[in-house]
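Weekly sync, protein design subgroup
Attendees: M.S., D.O., the rotation student, P.L. (late)

Item 1: inverse folding check
M.S. brought a backbone from last month's batch and wanted to see whether the design step gives back something sensible before we order anything. D.O. pointed out we never logged the input encoding, so this time it goes straight into the notes. Structure tokens as presented (294 positions):
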């Protein structure tokens, strides 16, 4: 992204792959980039039942206490209802549209099944309008969008929207550009290399979608200015060292000071960086072959 000046010299905007960069008419324009949504198309309208309004919590729980900080404001959002189970088996479905969803980073595909039912799924990279895809518990063609059991897939296959428990629906590798790699099939287990670098065993009868999740350049988008972050519903983050001692362990002192301790802390005095939060006796730990990269 360091080639901004040469790429935008004579135009109001310039597209690099799926990222759009604008001419630097303001300080905010100079530093930000956006996803190129020109790849999205629609040939069919989704039923109203596939949309739901996202409720605003302000980061508060049912007691009214703030449990997640820096949340508030932002645009109202209408989310699409995603079919994470893909339980219409052995019925071909046509991709009728590629759409944006404000609640997730990956694009969505609207499927129209042969019986006329319409459902949204996370769109795999490379899937186009008019393509036919299918979900089946049996072996399927290894192409993006088809869904089957992990035990039916050969080693080296890219998969996303992976089930952790059979029948529960996809839970892993669902964000933009994410995928896991099938490395081996051993008896009733499949060994996956996850996006985090963790190597994990998963039951072979769990379902997964072949391919990589769409919008692979999402990681290269730069927010660029504070106002755009506020429109996303993210409130400002204040440094602890800029506070008073009563408000944060890092606070206090005359002038600019370091945090003054061996390790950074949260406002409540707990270790802030490098702390393992996974429970030591968690039952699923036995399925982890190798921990994720530190």
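Designed sequence read out in the meeting:
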């Amino acid at each position: 992204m360091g080639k901004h000046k040469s790429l935008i010299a004579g135009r109001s905007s310039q597209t690099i792959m799926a990222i759009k960069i604008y001419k630097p008419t303001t300080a905010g324009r100079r530093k930000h980039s956006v996803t190129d949504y020109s790849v999205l198309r629609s040939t069919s309208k989704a039923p109203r039942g596939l949309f739901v309004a996202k409720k605003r919590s302000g980061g508060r729980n049912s007691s009214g206490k703030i449990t997640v900080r820096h949340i508030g404001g932002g645009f109202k959002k209408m989310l699409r209802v995603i079919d994470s189970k893909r339980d219409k088996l052995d019925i071909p479905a046509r991709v009728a549209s590629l759409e944006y969803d404000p609640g997730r980073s990956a694009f969505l595909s609207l499927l129209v099944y042969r019986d006329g039912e319409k459902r949204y799924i996370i769109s795999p990279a490379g899937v186009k309008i008019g393509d036919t895809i299918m979900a089946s518990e049996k072996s399927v063609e290894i192409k993006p969008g088809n869904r089957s059991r992990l035990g039916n897939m050969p080693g080296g296959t890219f998969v996303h929207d992976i089930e952790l428990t059979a029948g529960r629906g996809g839970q892993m590798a669902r964000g933009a550009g994410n995928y896991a790699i099938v490395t081996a099939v051993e008896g009733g287990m499949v060994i996956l290399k996850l996006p985090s670098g963790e190597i994990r065993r998963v039951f072979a009868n769990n379902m997964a979608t072949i391919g990589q999740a769409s919008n692979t350049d999402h990681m290269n988008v730069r927010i660029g200015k504070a106002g755009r972050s506020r429109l996303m519903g993210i409130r400002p983050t204040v440094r602890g060292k800029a506070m008073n001692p009563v408000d944060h362990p890092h606070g206090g002192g005359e002038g600019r000071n370091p945090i003054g301790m061996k390790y950074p802390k949260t406002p409540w005095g707990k270790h802030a960086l490098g702390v393992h939060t996974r429970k030591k006796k968690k039952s699923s730990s036995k399925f982890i072959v190798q921990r994720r990269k530190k």
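Discussion: The helical segments are 4-7, 27-31, 226-231. The longest helix spans residues 226-231.
Action: P.L. to compare against the previous round before Friday.
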